[in-house]
Each structure stands twice: as C-alpha cells, then as structure tokens.
Amino acid sequence: MRVLIAGADGYLGWPLMQHLAARGHDVAGVDNGARRRWVAEMESVSAIPIAAPAERRAAFAERFGTEPAWWDGDVRDLDLVRSIFREWRPEAVVHLGECPSAPYSMIDAEHAIEVQVNNVVGTFALLGAMHELAPEAHLLKLGTMGEYGTPDIDIPEGFFEVEFRGRRDTLPFPRQAGSWYHWSKVHGSNNIMFACKVWGLRATDVMQGVVFGTRPGDEPAAPALRTRLDFDEAFGTAINRFCCQAVIGHPLTPFGEGRQRRGFLALRDSMQCLTLALEHPPEPGEYRVFNQFQEVYGLAELADMVARVAGEVGLDVEVCPVENPRQEAASHHYAPDHQHLLDLGYEPTIDIEGEMGLVLEDLLEHRARIEAHAEVLVPGVRWDGRRERVGWLRAPA
C-alpha cells in the first residue's frame, strides 16, 4: 500500500514510517518542521536527541534499502498537497500533521488562532485533494479522546443511539472539548464526516488516548532512527513527563487531586493500532470512529506507578501535586468503549509498568539533557490566561 504520512517528522509519524516500511508498505512523508519549532518556543528540547530530517532519511534508506519520498512543506498549502497527490498517488493518507497541544493553544489568542488554523485548514486541504485526485484513498486521521470531554455517561466510539420524544436515531456523540486545541480536533472531525457524506470519501477518525514510551518495538532504534520524547508542559504527555522528572530526581507533579482519568497506551501499541486501521479500510462513503487506548488510569495513580518503578531501578522519587492550571473537573466518571480495534485484532503488547521501566532505562543516559531544561517541568500556562508557574499543593521534602 502506498501511504502518505503528514507530520512524518513527529513523535508518532517517524516511527510509523518505519513500522509500515518493515511490513512492506511504500511510505512517503510531508512535514514543515513545526513540532521542532513549537518545542523550541517552549524553551525545551526532546529528551532523546533526534537527528536532522535529512540525516533521518539517510538512516531510513540504509535500514530499508531506499530513501522515502519526502516533501518539506505545509499541508495547509492546497497547491502543494495537490502536487504531492499527482506525483505520488497515495492509496492511504495518515494525518498526524497537527499541533497536538492543549496548553499551547491556551497561551493566548494568537496561539489559539494558530492551532485552529493549522489543524482545521490542514485537514481540509487533505480532504480537498483526496476528493479531486485520490477519491478511493483512505484517510486515517488522528483525533483525540479529549474531543469527548468527560461526560457523566459512558463514551461510545463516535456514535450512539438516542431516543427523544418517542423517536430514535443514531447520532454523533456530543463533543465537550476542554481547550481550543481539542475544539480544533472536533471541527476537523465534523469536516471529515461531512466529506465522507457528500464526496463519498472513506475515513477513519482515531480518538487516541495519551501515548507514552520511547520504543515502537522491542529494542531501542539506532540513534538516527529514534523518535523524539518531549517533557515540557505543552508537548510532553503525562507518563513521559513523569519519567523525565524521575530520572533527574524532580518531584512528580500530577495536577490537583490527580483524580482526572484518561485512557493511555504505549507507543508500540499506537503503531499496532494505526496499522490495523490502515490494513482494514472502511467502505467508500464510510466515516468510522475508533477509540484507541489500552487502559484508563487516574493521573495520581500513574505518578505513583512511575515512582514505584523508578524506585526499583534505584531512583528516589517523591510525588508532589501542583495546582491544576486547567479548568476541568477534579473527579469524574470516565468509561469509554474501545472495542473496534480489538475486533480487528489489537493485542496490547506489554504492561504499563513494564513500559515505564523501558522509558526510564532509555532516558537515564540523557539525564544531563533533561536537567539542563528542568524549568519546563512545572506548568506556567493557565487556562484563565495568566502566565505564571503553578504552586505546589504539597511542597517537596
């Protein structure tokens, strides 16, 4: 299968290119380098050093025998996307080329606008080019479980049956996004659903939980093939941030009471799930939604798990909650479905604590790099617009 990956230089995009190539798929990438720029703007770096894009592609060629087709460009540019489609004729498009950060979108109005424009316009350009030039292709779009919010009922996979005033219908499940970023993802989902209806496109909208981990496979990749791992407040996900804190002896910082619940999965399982979705495409005109995660945990529970695993490798770590910079319920019901990928054959590959141990193992050699940017480990972006670091709810010993 010929697969075009938008956002191919990112945390998920780069290992997915390798994972698909190893399975015999023909892969190509497009990326404008935004993730590198956004993290630099947050005055941070990837905890694991990553190679420049050209060096990455050379290492890819050495590993897989040929360098992937690649475009340094922005998928918001419809003419560029059209030219890529004419030249490369993709059979599937994986859209990872969005800003994936709620905190980044909440910095101020300028950042909110940037995230909305980047995410909504980029998605629409891909839809437009598919309609014109690759109507049989399959769009695999990375959504987020955050689109649903935290309703006080169970969360289905995209759609549910509702009865109102004696009539029944199957409708999209209501979205209750909690940031400008999450609303941009909702807008993208709505556009994709409508494009499938009026243009007959086929699409899979993957509502992904929080991804963590350093390895897309069993062994660490060669240096130039490694993916990034961020730990700043905007682009570092919870477990990855906790692990980075642990390796430098920084207190682990769940927000508030830490009873916010989310779905989590390891990087390697994200690779498995995205591949299953690609290799089992929907029918023409079909818009389907997959909820993608392994287990549901509370944030304080995860911090305690990281502290326990860190202790097993000789790291003395304490958990010290901080003020919650977000506007969200401190405690809530959270019971999302995730059966569709299991029906396609998804099998979780490793337990959460086992994967945490591998993350710590891979990060220890980069302790000094994380330590040099330790100031980004305590949030300074608040949902109410203030820009000041949150305070400790329990001071470190």
Question: In short, what is this structure?
Answer:
Helix 10 crosses helix 12.
Largest sheet: 7 strands, parallel
Superfamily (CATH H level) name of the domain at 2-216 and 264-294: NAD(P)-binding Rossmann-like Domain
Radius of gyration: 20 Å
Distance, first to last CA: 55 Å
- List the secondary-structure elements in sequence, H or E: EHEHHEHEHHEEEHEEHEHEEHHHH
The CATH architecture category of the domain at 2-216 and 264-294 equals 3-Layer(aba) Sandwich
Beta-strand segment tally: 12
CATH classification class of the domain at 2-216 and 264-294: Alpha Beta
Nearest-integer average pLDDT: 97
Form type: globular
Low-confidence stretches: none
Residues in helix, %: 25-40%
Using brief descriptors, characterize the structure shown.
alpha/beta; seven-stranded parallel β-sheet; Rossmann fold; 12 strands; 13 helices; three-stranded mixed β-sheet; 397 residues
Describe the protein.
The chain is α/β, with parallel strands linked by helices and 397 residues long. The chain has a domain at 2-216 and 264-294: Rossmann fold (3-Layer(aba) Sandwich), CATH 3.40.50. 38% of the residues lie in helices and 16% in strands. The chain has 13 helices and 12 strands. The protein has helices at 13-22, 34-41, 53-64, 78-88, 102-105, 109-133, 180-199, 238-247, 267-279, 299-312, 339-344, 352-364, 367-371, and strands at 2-6, 26-31, 69-72, 92-95, 138-144, 159-164, 167-172, 202-208, 210-212, 261-266, 287-292, 295-298. It starts with a strand and ends in a 26-residue tail after the last helix.
